[in-house]
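Fig. S4 source data, part A: sequence.
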Amino acid sequence: MQYKVYLSGEIHSNWRSDIVEACVVKKLPVEFMAPVTDHDASDEVGAKILGNEMQNFWKDHKAAKINTIRIQNGIAKSDLVVIMFGEKYRQWNAAFDAGQAAAMGKPYIVIHPEEFTHALKEVDAQAMAVAKEPYQVVQILEYLCRDYV
């Protein structure tokens, strides 16, 4: 079985490439999609295309709407969403993506450190799995792709 997986969340580490590379090595039939992970490009897209704003609220508003087109389409096209909550910043957008996935009926897996368990209890409650490390997601994908017939 082939899976389309949307990789959401934290953008300050290599967790996405770690998952993708491990799946390539294991020859898993998985296609990956992701949001724009260049922080500056993501933050500046609205102002760059639609014009500068005097207030940061409106600058961020423009960027968020443009980025949401890609995010919502990626989640909608996916069979599974993987959401990483990193330690450096609070990823409110990642929690929103989890809510979007749940609302669309898309199964999702979250990755986060143990100390985030309480803060993410509602997100975790809807997840199909709560992993602590990206390699656990690779193991889940390997299990899902294996033919047991």
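Fig. S4 source data, part B ends here. The domain at 3-35+76-145 is CATH 3.40.50.450 (Rossmann fold).
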